[in-house]
Write a structure and sequence with these properties.
Length: 464
């Protein structure tokens, strides 16, 4: 135990490090939408670039660590992570959304290396009977980093950008008092004031936009420096060498052949696509939900996102404890059903309006926040179920599960499309509410997988 404690702590720190990156990024979808005056689907390209890096790099990362080792995979991941963060500075200077997307993509190519390496390393680092519980414990520190990322997004980025909204309003008042007077400042007005300013003073809007993008770039620069420090720490750290078995010169064809033989594994990969999709959709569009349904400013809405992540953290520790008594498939199924019910609540339950800083009864929003408690167990549990008894082949198999994170690149874009084109479906529900039928579908897939695993496992009791 003493031999693995320090390596376990070091690797677990990486879970918090990529959690920070994930959740400082989610609110940026709404931020870029306002700053650049783009639609919901186009702003969701942030998530497509971010999680697309996971998808593209997962299998190359698995092949790399199979040929070399876990430590080298971690070092490559940290290097790419740092480079991606540092690319935010030239992206901000160029005022280029495309350059920001490239920075996100490079950064998450590094995160793909880290996750493809760290998850199976934790599984292999000790008694295999406790591997899933060990992974759940390590994953429990991921949302701690996420909460820090959300806090920085709220207090360092969104709040300062909202201050620039008032700067934009002041400029508009000087240029066109009538247009400024027509803007209702008791509701979120960022896009409206910027669109009006674009009509009367493009240069002032460009200057404000530059200031906004500098606000976004600053925390990523600091993050890049922190990641460089982690790179140096791991460069000199001594990690246990876990032997690799089998042919290290496997071709891609042979690799895919191994991945497609296991029915349990393939179903887990598909389920992971839908799980990551629902997680990113809920955490990305909670701000749009609070803004459109309640008239809540983004910095205030982000507090509900932080509350959701706090529930995620607490629930992760509770569920990790419950795994001592219940099978992973049991908790996965129960939490999937609960998540589906809460999503229906977010779609159909009423919300009071947020007026002059006064909070009300936000039943739909409360349901949206509570969904995070249901999601806490899902990623590591699906991961552990998929890689059960795989041994060294977990290095290759883990790549498919990290590739499945690509669900986070596709589904927010699809949800954004639904919000932008809700008239396709009629006007019974608002566009944002209607878009949450897509997360509901994801929970249905997760529940079906949980039932299938329960039937496939013997004995068929839900109790350990």
């Amino acid at each position: 135990m003493k031999n693995i404690l320090l390596p376990f702590i070091l690797i677990t720190s990486l879970f918090a490090l990529w959690g920070f990156a994930n959740d400082i990024t989610n609110p940026m979808v709404a931020a870029f939408k306002n700053i650049l005056l783009i639609d919901n689907a186009e702003s969701a390209l942030v998530q497509m670039a971010f999680y697309g890096g996971y998808c593209i790099m997962a299998i190359p990362a698995a092949l790399f660590i199979r040929r070399f080792n876990y430590k080298n995979g971690i070092l490559i991941g940290l290097a790419l992570y740092a480079i991606g963060c540092l690319l935010f500075i030239p992206a901000g200077n160029a005022l280029s959304f495309g350059a920001f997307l490239v920075a996100y993509f490079v950064m998450t190519c590094g995160l793909s290396f880290l996750e493809t390496t760290s998850n199976p390393y934790i599984l292999a680092l000790g008694d295999k009977e406790n591997a899933t519980r060990r992974l759940n414990l390590a994953q429990a520190f991921n949302p701690l980093g996420s909460i820090m990322g959300m806090f920085v997004a709220s207090q360092v980025i969104l709040t300062k950008i909202e201050a620039n909204d008032y700067n934009a309003l002041s400029v508009l008042e000087n240029k066109n008092a009538e247009a400024a007077a027509a803007i209702d400042t008791t509701k979120p007005f960022a896009e409206e004031v910027r669109a009006a300013l674009q009509q009367v003073d493009v240069q002032s809007l460009v200057e404000i936009r530059k200031a906004d993008l500098d606000i976004i770039s600053g925390p990523y620069l600091i993050l890049g420096i922190v990641v460089i420090a982690f790179f140096l720490l791991f460069l000199f750290a001594r990690l246990p060498k876990i032997a690799a078995n089998g042919d290290k010169s496997l071709s891609l064809g042979e690799t895919f052949g191994l991945l497609f033989k296991n029915k349990r594994y393939l179903r887990a990969v598909v389920t992971q696509v839908f799980y990551v999709g629902v997680q990113i959709m809920v955490w990305t569009f909670i701000i749009q939900y609070a803004g459109s349904e309640l008239g809540m400013p983004k910095s205030v809405a982000q507090k509900f996102n932080i509350a959701a992540m706090a529930m995620f953290v607490v629930s992760r520790f509770i569920c990790t404890f419950l795994l001592k008594f219940f099978k992973p498939s049991a908790l996965l199924t129960i939490l999937g059903i609960s998540g589906a019910i809460l999503t229906l609540g977010a779609i159909f339950l009423p919300n009071a309006q947020y007026v002059d800083g006064q909070y009300g009864a936000y039943w739909g929003l409360y349901c949206l926040v509570l969904i995070s408690a249901c999601m806490s167990l899902m990623f590591p549990t699906i991961y552990g179920i998929a890689l059960k008894d795989m041994g060294d082949e977990a290095k290759l198999a883990s790549s498919g599960l990290i590739l499945a994170i690509g669900g986070g690149s596709i589904m927010p874009y699809l949800q954004g499309k639904i919000i932008d084109n809700a008239h396709w479906f009629g006007e019974t529900l608002s566009s944002v509410r209607l878009s949450f039928f897509l997360p509901l579908l994801c929970f249905v897939v997760i529940v079906l997988f949980g039932f299938w695993v329960k039937r496939a496992d013997k004995p068929k009791s839900y109790i350990q």
